[in-house]
Amino acid sequence: MYQLSFVFQGKVDFDNECSEIVKNIQRVRVLYPLSEIILSTWLLGSERESRLIEKLKYLNVNIIFSVDPGPLFYKEGGYQWALNINRMIHSTKKGVEASTREYVVKLRTDSYFINRNLKKIFLHKKIIDKRFDREEKYSLFSERIINCNLFARHSRSYRPFNFHPGDIMMLGKKEDVLNFFSSPDADESLFEIIFNKTIFSLMRLVPEQYLWVNYIRSRIHDFNYPSNNARGMAITSSSERYYINNFIPFSSEQLGFVWPKYSDKYNNKGRDSIYHFSDWVKINNQFYNNKKKVYGYRFFSKVVCLKIIYFFLYLPLRWGVIRRIIMHLKSRE
After folding, report:
1. Are 204 and 229 in contact (CB under 8 A)?
2. CA 265 to chain centre
3. In angstroms, rounded to a whole number, what is the distance separating the alpha carbons of residues 128 and 280?
4. CB 209 within 8 A of CB 163
5. Fewer CB within 10 A of the end CB, N or C, for the chain?
6. Cα-to-chain-centroid distance, residue 153
7. Taking Cα atoms as reference points, which of 227, 196, 205 lies closest to residue 310?
8. pLDDT recorded at residue 329
9. What pLDDT sits at residue 328?
10. CA 283 from chain center: how many Å?
11. Do residues 214 and 183 make contact, with C-beta atoms less than 8 angstroms apart?
């Protein structure tokens, strides 16, 4: 896959010797020896930067050190909650800009691949695209992006976020990936306490939505999705059409992709609230092959039960004292 650039973005100092990122890059280099590898991270100081360059020299890695824009902080009382969205935007954009290949794989520095499944999916993508035509009105990228489905929220699930693709790993044309991560920096206006049935958030748009909504707005001038307080079938339909025409979701297992944090910190939560390839096919069939009933009674019964459970789980967060305790315990990275 010589035409690919792998862009690792994010921090590297998980440990003093940066051994984790070296190991993750080494895994990819073994699998894809002819591909370009770029590491886009933050300034570490001349001594640590030199050590990292020396460790990665034999892996033929282009390293980009940028000024850390820092996190945003949501503050409530004496508590604060960190959000690293601008760090993600800056490091990804710098890395993709530096790539020289036609296609880019964007992944985090704490993730890696364990086999060549990605190559197989990439080579079969043209067959999928040919089988499922794109609707011009909703097609914003030059071609669909392969999207790891971690946190690619299913609009009909018990966590029905709209306009919420996954940003953990994606493979697409360089210009498309770059455009997706070309949103303006976020500021504190992004923070807003949202309670909408089974959706609770401290942001009116979470990072994945912020990126996608901003990109759609840049292309569709009358498009408006203000926040997660907006609901309705028309919005869900629009969200689904934009997703299936611009992304194809695959699971970590299908892609041979590993993001340890998903199991270590998030405990694999949310697997029933994300898109799978089978969902993508069903929704395509509904919109473009005139199949009216693509989900059965069992699917909707499960969603309703989970919505009831999550509604009551999030209910205590309406009280500020409890919410601040949770904020103190958790911080998004």
Report:
1. yes
2. 16
3. 11
4. yes
5. C
6. 10
7. 196
8. 58
9. 62
10. 20
11. yes
Q: Which amino acid is at 90?
A: H
**Tens digits of per-residue pLDDT, 287-322?**
998 888 889 999 999 999 999 998 998 888 888 888
**Cβ-based neighbours of 113, under 8 Å, separated by 6 or more:** 27, 28, 31, 255, 256, 257, 258
**Residue 4: band (very low, low, confident or very high) from pLDDT cuts 50, 70, 90:** very high
Q: Residue 78: left if φ>0, alpha if ψ -120 to 50, beta else—which one?
A: alpha
